[in-house]
Amino acid sequence: MRILQTPVRFYPFIGGVENYVYNLSTELIKLDHNVTVVCANEPICKNNELIKKINVIRIPYIGKIANTNITPKLPILIFKKNFDIIHTHIPTPWCADWSAIITEFKRKPLILTYHNDIVADGFANYIAKFYNLTSLKFVLSKAAKIIITQPNYMASSPYLRKYKNKVEVIPNGVNVNRFSPMNVEKSDNTLFFLSVLDKFHKYKGLDKLLQALVIVKKEIKDVKLIVGGTGELLKYYKQKTISLGLKQNVFFTGFISDEKIVEYYNKCDAFVLPSISAKQEGFGIVLLEAMACEKPIITTGIVGVANEAIDNNAGIVVPTKDTKMLANAIIKVLEDDNTAKMMGKNGRKLVENKYSWEKVAKMMDDVYRGLA
Prior knowledge:
The chain is of the alpha/beta class. Helices cover 41% and strands 20% of the residues. Helix 3 (93-106) links the parallel strand 7 and strand 8 (110-114). The radius of gyration is 20 Å and the shape is globular.
C-alpha cells in the first residue's frame, strides 16, 4: 500500500512523534508498504531524499505557531500525491487538518495517531483551546481509525470519548536489537534523563527531578544526574542546578547523537522520567529504550508503560509532582544493586515480548489492510 505520513517534522529532528514515524515507517517498508513522509524542512536538509527506503519530502516553512511549523505548500503537495492512506498525527494541527481535508476530498482513509492532547501556556493556550473546540473535532470525525498508544488516554482526554468506537490501542515500540545491554565504563550512582529542553517539554518533569536530587544528595553524596538534550531552557536548568547546590552532581551533555545514545543508556544505573502532565505525556518512548538496555526505570503513573512496569517489576512508579517519593525511589534503586539488576532484566523481557517495532508495525499493518 502507498502510505503517506504527515508529521510536522522528521528525522534527523529528535522528538517523540518524529521517532515514532521514523521507526514505524522503517518497519512498514519491510512489510512491503511504500512509505512517503511529507514534513517541514527542520532542520534544513535535502528537500527530497531516501532514508532507509522512506521517501522524505521536506517543505520550507514560514514560521511556527506554538510548536507547529507552518508550511504553505503542504496542501498542494499532499493533493498531488498518489496514496492509499494518509497517516497523520496529533499534536501537530496544521499537518493533521490538511490531511483530513484532502482525504475527505479524495475519499481515502485517514489514520490518526493521537499522541496527546494539544495544550499550551500563556496566549498559546487560548489558541489551543480554540483549535480543540473547532478543527480538532473535524479531524477526529474524519479519521477512519484513531490510534492511541496507551488505554488510559481514553479516560484522561476529554476529546476522544465521543469517538471510542473507532479507537484502537497500538503501543509505541523500541528497536530491541539496537537498544540492548553493552559493556561500557561507568561510575556508580548515576541517573539519566533525556528530553528536549524547551518550554513545550517542561512536562517531562526535570524541575521536579532536580528538586528530588537535593533530597537524594543528603543520603548519597556522590549521586550524578546526566541530562541529555538541548533547547531554549538549557541555560535555565543550568542556573537552577547552581541555585540548588547541585553543580557538582548534574552534567548536561547537550544533544546526544544516534551513535552515542545507547552508550548513555548503558552508562546509567537508572533512567528517570518524572512526567507531570497526563494531557501532554503520550507514552514515553525513552522508557522503552532504557528498559531495552536492562535499566530500571523510575517514572510517574501517567506514562504509557507505568502499569506494566509495576506488574513486571521493571521499575518504580511514583505520584506526579511528589519530589519526596521520587527521591525515595531513586535512593532505593541506587542503594540496592540486586533489585536494580533484577528490574533491568525484567524490563528487557517486557519490551522483547511486547514492544518491538516489528510487532507494533504488524498491528498497524492489520489496521491499514482492514481499511483497504
